[in-house]
């Protein structure tokens, strides 16, 4: 019979081994466990979505200027229509209610200051609340998830129509959209381009962290900086992570001819380089990085502290490869869900501000030159 001390040590080793096995298994299957926890487990066909927003009400807008229906002479010269990325994790719902408090907090603390903030000097910002598809719907290619994402587009379309009718007053428009919002914007631009009067007012469209097809684009791709009426779209991946880039493109969904979401398949993706202000494969050195920013938690309208020369970037095979930032504040962190949505910083904050300013100025100068003189 072994001594009690030796028996205790064996028991401790067995317990430690069991803990290590469980920990290893949990680590391996953690993504699957988290996805399962966010799965609504209800077929979308039988799902009852939250109540539709009424865009005649200010409560249906996440961001509005002080006097949305009456532009002021002190306002910047354009309007910015901003479509938010995912801020709703999921769980019971495929699509978010527009008054979900946690989703609204993520929007105000993270997404608005980092992605709408660069355009505050460019135009009055209009950001509709919409029944966005949950984060879970972006992590699976199930038909239910595609249906949830297509459903969300109906709100964005209605919001844009109300914006044009009530607020725009024939001003230049800059469309800014991120991630899931970028996919919504791709279709919105295609429909807007069918109306020459609306298409002629779009100074630029920025589809941030969005895979968009390079062919049959609703607006011509932005080829040079001093160009108006063009489309800038890109999705970024850390330099050297070619397999991640391939997986990202393989899983990307874009709009099919029947208004359904389909795989990109072997079509090339559009890649705009914010450091160069152009859709090109030419590499951009870090010295062109005017200022990255981590604006998370800043009060709306406050300008962040800029960190210049943080990254270089280059387009290859439809993906923007970006070098590792020098600042630790520009590295993804946070909870599991936070690391799978648009990051809480913007590597190109100052470049996007400057780029949009130039494109709006180009449109205004062009329109002035063709206007009949008294």
Condensed summary:
This protein is an alpha/beta fold and 374 residues long. The protein has helices at residues 4-38, 101-116, 135-138, 143-166, 180-192, 196-199, 242-251, 349-370; strands at residues 61-63, 78-83, 123-128, 173-178, 202-208, 230-234, 236-238, 253-255, 261-263, 313-316, 319-322.
Order of helices and strands: HEEHEHHEHHEEEHEEEEH
Distance between the termini: 110 Å
The biggest beta sheet reads: 6 strands, mixed
Q: What is the rounded Rg?
A: 23 Å
Q: What would the average pLDDT be, to the nearest integer?
A: 91
The shape, in one word, is globular
Helix content: 25-40%
Strand-residue fraction? 5-15%
Helical element count?
8
How many domains comprise the coordinates? 1
* Number of E strands: 11
Major beta sheet, strand line-up: 1-3-2-4-5-6
Please tell me about this protein's structure.
With 374 residues, this protein is an alpha/beta fold. It has 8 helices and 11 strands. The protein has helices at residues 4-38, 101-116, 135-138, 143-166, 180-192, 196-199, 242-251, 349-370, and strands at 61-63, 78-83, 123-128, 173-178, 202-208, 230-234, 236-238, 253-255, 261-263, 313-316, 319-322. It has a 6-stranded mixed beta sheet, sandwiched between helices. It has a 3-stranded mixed beta sheet with strand order 7-11-10, covered by helices on one side. The model is unreliable at 21-28 (pLDDT under 50).
